[in-house]
C-alpha cells in the first residue's frame, strides 16, 4: 500500500481529445427528447443507470435485505440476487455485463455504451455531470469500456470523452468568462482495478464517488467533477459487529486543473492559483447501530495539500499520507509559516421509516476545524453548511410507485459572517483551488456559496419514470462584495427559479433518459437584468 501510494502521487493523468459534430449531437438529443419519459439520474452508474437509486427505493418499500447506509456510493458492484432488487430490475440490466461468463471464477464482457448530451440556450447551467462543464451551447460525453473478473480481481476500463461548444454568454464583473474556443477532453472515467476479499476492497480507481445521504447534492464528494485518480481501501458490504454494522472508505487521490479555464470556485471567472497538483486524503465511516433499527450515522473528513509540499515533507507515513487521521492543530492553522493545507468535516444521519415508505436525512459540515470547545460554543454555525432532505414512496394502483423527494442545500455563509468572514465553504485559504478537480467543485455543484431548494415528483414503474422537478437557487446570497453601507452585500440578489420534466424509458437493451428545464433568473449575474434559459440533458445507454 505504501509503495502504491508513493508511485501514485508521482503519476500523470491520462488526457486526450474527442470531437463530435453538432448535427450528431442534435440527432441524439432529439431522439431522447421524443422517446424518453424519465429522470436523469443524479449519480451515473458505471453500468449506465442509477442502480443505487433502485437499492434506495427497495429499502423503503421493504423489498430489500441490503443494509447499506447509502452514504458511500456507488455501492460495490454485486449481483442483483445479493442486493435483492430483482423485483425492480426485472430480467436485469444488472447481469448484462456478466453474460460472457466463461467459468465460475472468470468473467469478461463489454460494458454499456453511454452517450450523454447537455444543452444550455443562454447561459451556463446544470451540475452532477462528471466531465461536462458549466458552459453555454451543446456538449456531449461518451463512455464505453470492458470488464473482466478473475477470482478476487476485478478490472473495469471505461474512459469518458467530452466535447463542448463552449459558446459565448452574457457575463458581468462578478460572474463568467467569455470563452475563446470549444472544450474537448478525455478522462479515465469510471475505471478501476480492485482486489476484493473477505468483504474488503483495495485498488486504484478514477470512478466518481458520492459521499453522504443527499439525492441531489453532497457536501464533500459527488459526480459534479470528473472522477479523479485515487487509491482506495474500503468495505464492500456492511460489516457486522456486536454494536452494529460498519462501512468505511479511505481515499488517497490526486487533484489537478487546467488553469487556463475558469473555476467554479471563482464564479466561472479566470483564476491563477498556484499551478501545482494537490494530494487529497479522505475518510468516511458509517454505523448502523444494532440498538437503533433503521438509523444510519456517519462522519467524513478530507485534507489536501500541494504536491510539492507533500514531496518535500519530512513527516512520517501517517502525518504525510494519512493527514485525515492527524489534521493540523489550531496552532498550525494559525501559523502562516506552516505547510498550506485545507480540510472539511461532515456528520450525517439517515432515518428510514419502512412502514411509511419514507426517509429523512441530514448532512452537516464545517470547512474550518474548531480551535477549541470555546470556539464551538461561542460560534457553532461559523463556516458551516448543511443538506437536509426526505423521500416518500406511495404505491399506485397499476403497481407503479409515486416518489416524492425534497432537499435543501445551504452553502451560504451564516449570520456570523459580518464579524468573522468564513468565505467560500470549499476553500479556507491554505489551498487556493479549494476542493476542486479540473476547475469543478467536487461536492455541491450548484455553485459557490449557493442555497438550493428542490422538490421532485416521479412516477416509477420498473426502470420507466416520468416526473416533475421544481428548483430554486439563491446564487451566493451572502457574498461580501458590496459597499459597507449595504452590510457589504451585493446591490442585486440573483435568484433562479426552474421548472422541469424528467423521464426514463427502457426498450430491451436500450435505456434512454432526459430532463428539460425552463430557468428564469432574476438579477442574472448580480445585475439588474432578468434572463431565461432552456436547459436540456439526456442519456442513452446500450447494454450488450
What can you tell me about this protein's structure?
By secondary structure, the protein is mainly β. The protein has one domain: Capsule assembly protein Wzi (Porin, Beta Barrel), CATH 2.40.160. It is 11% helix and 39% strand. It is built from 9 helices and 25 strands. The chain has helices at residues 2-8, 22-35, 51-60, 80-83, 86-89, 307-312, 317-321, 330-334, 373-378, and strands at residues 72-73, 106-120, 137-150, 153-157, 160-164, 183-187, 192-197, 200-205, 210-211, 230-235, 239-241, 244-255, 278-289, 295-306, 341-353, 358-366, 384-395, 401-410, 436-437, 440-441, 451-461, 464-474, 495-507, 510-522, 531-542. The protein has an 18-stranded antiparallel barrel. The two termini are 36 Å apart. The relative contact order is 0.16.
Low-confidence spans: pLDDT under 50, at least 5 residues? Answer: 1-44, 79-101
Q: Report the structural category.
A: mainly beta
Could you say which overall geometry the principal axes of the C-alpha atoms support? Answer: globular
Quote the distance from N terminus to C terminus.
36 Å
CATH topology category name: Porin
Q: Percentage of helical residues? A: 10-25%
Tally of contiguous helical segments: 9
Second CATH tier, the architecture = Beta Barrel
Total domain units: 1
Annotation, overall tally of beta strands: 25
Oligomer status? single chain
CATH superfamily: Capsule assembly protein Wzi
**Percent in strands:** 35-45%
| Overall average pLDDT | 84
CATH first level: Mainly Beta
Layout: helices, strands, pairs:
Elements: H1 2-8, H2 22-35, H3 51-60, E1 72-73, H4 80-83, H5 86-89, E2 106-120, E3 137-150, E4 153-157, E5 160-164, E6 183-187, E7 192-197, E8 200-205, E9 210-211, E10 230-235, E11 239-241, E12 244-255, E13 278-289, E14 295-306, H6 307-312, H7 317-321, H8 330-334, E15 341-353, E16 358-366, H9 373-378, E17 384-395, E18 401-410, E19 436-437, E20 440-441, E21 451-461, E22 464-474, E23 495-507, E24 510-522, E25 531-542
Antiparallel strand pairs: 1-9, 2-3, 2-25, 3-4, 3-5, 4-7, 5-6, 7-8, 8-10, 10-12, 11-12, 12-13, 13-14, 14-15, 15-16, 16-17, 17-18, 18-21, 19-20, 21-22, 22-23, 23-24, 24-25
Amino acid at each position: 500500500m505504501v509503495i502504491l501510494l508513493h508511485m501514485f502521487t508521482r503519476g500523470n493523468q491520462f488526457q486526450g481529445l474527442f470531437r463530435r459534430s453538432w448535427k450528431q449531437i442534435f440527432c441524439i438529443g432529439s431522439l431522447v427528447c421524443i422517446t424518453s419519459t424519465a429522470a436523469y439520474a443524479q449519480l451515473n452508474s458505471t453500468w449506465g443507470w442509477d442502480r443505487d437509486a433502485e437499492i434506495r427505493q427497495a429499502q423503503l418499500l421493504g423489498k430489500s435485505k441490503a443494509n447499506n447506509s447509502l452514504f458511500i456510493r456507488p455501492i460495490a458492484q454485486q449481483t442483483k440476487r445479493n442486493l435483492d432488487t430483482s423485483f425492480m430490475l426485472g430480467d436485469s440490466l444488472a447481469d448484462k455485463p456478466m453474460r460472457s461468463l466463461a467459468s465460475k471464477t472468470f468473467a469478461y464482457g463489454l460494458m454499456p455504451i453511454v452517450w450523454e448530451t447537455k444543452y444550455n440556450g443562454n447561459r451556463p447551467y446544470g451540475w452532477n455531470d462528471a466531465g461536462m462543464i458549466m458552459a453555454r451551447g451543446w456538449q456531449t460525453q461518451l463512455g464505453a469500456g470492458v470488464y473482466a473478473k478473475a477470482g478476487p480481481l476485478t478490472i473495469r476500463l471505461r474512459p469518458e470523452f467530452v466535447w463542448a461548444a463552449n459558446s459565448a454568454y452574457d457575463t458581468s464583473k462578478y460572474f463568467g468568462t467569455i470563452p475563446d474556443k470549444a472544450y474537448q477532453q478525455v478522462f479515465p472515467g469510471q475505471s478501476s482495478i480492485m482486489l476484493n476479499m473477505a468483504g474488503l476492497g483495495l485498488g486504484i480507481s478514477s470512478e466518481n464517488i458520492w459521499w453522504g445521504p443527499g439525492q441531489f447534492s453532497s457536501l464533500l464528494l459527488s459526480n459534479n467533477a470528473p472522477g479523479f485518480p485515487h487509491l482506495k481501501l474500503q468495505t464492500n458490504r456492511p460489516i457486522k459487529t456486536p454494536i452494529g454494522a460498519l462501512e468505511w472508505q479511505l481515499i488517497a487521490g490526486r487533484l489537478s486543473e487546467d488553469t487556463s479555464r475558469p473555476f467554479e470556485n471563482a464564479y466561472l471567472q479566470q483564476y491563477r492559483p498556484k499551478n501545482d497538483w494537490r494530494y487529497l486524503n479522505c475518510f468516511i465511516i458509517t454505523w448502523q447501530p444494532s440498538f437503533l433499527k433503521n438509523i444510519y450515522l456517519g462522519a467524513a473528513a478530507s485534507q489536501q495539500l500541494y504536491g510539492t509540499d507533500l514531496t518535500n515533507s519530512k513527516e512520517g507515513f501517517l502525518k504525510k499520507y494519512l493527514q485525515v487521521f492527524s489534521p493540523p492543530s489550531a496552532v498550525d492553522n494559525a501559523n502562516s509559516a506552516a505547510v498550506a493545507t485545507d480540510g472539511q468535516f461532515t456528520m450525517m444521519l439517515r432515518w428510514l421509516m419502512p412502514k411509511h415508505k419514507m426517509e429523512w436525512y441530514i448532512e452537516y459540515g464545517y470547512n474550518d476545524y474548531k480551535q477549541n470547545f470555546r470556539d464551538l460554543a461561542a460560534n457553532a454555525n461559523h463556516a458551516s453548511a448543511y443538506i437536509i432532505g426526505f423521500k416518500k414512496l406511495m404505491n399506485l394502483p397499476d403497481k407503479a410507485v409515486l416518489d416524492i423527494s425534497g432537499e435543501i442545500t445551504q452553502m451560504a455563509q451564516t449570520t456570523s459572517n459580518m464579524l468573522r468572514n468564513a468565505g467560500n465553504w470549499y476553500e479556507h485559504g491554505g489551498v487556493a483551488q479549494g476542493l476542486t478537480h479540473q476547475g469543478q467543485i467536487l461536492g455541491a455543484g450548484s455553485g459557490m456559496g449557493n442555497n438550493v431548494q428542490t422538490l421532485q415528483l416521479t412516477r416509477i414503474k420498473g426502470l420507466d419514470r416520468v416526473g416533475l422537478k421544481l428548483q430554486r437557487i439563491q446564487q451566493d446570497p451572502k457574498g461580501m462584495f458590496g459597499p459597507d453601507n449595504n452590510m457589504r452585500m451585493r446591490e442585486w440578489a440573483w435568484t433562479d427559479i426552474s421548472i422541469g420534466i424528467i423521464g426514463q424509458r427502457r426498450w430491451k437493451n436500450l435505456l434512454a433518459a432526459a430532463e428539460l428545464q425552463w430557468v428564469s433568473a432574476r438579477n442574472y449575474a448580480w445585475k439588474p437584468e432578468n434572463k431565461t434559459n432552456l436547459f436540456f440533458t439526456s442519456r442513452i445507454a446500450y447494454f450488450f
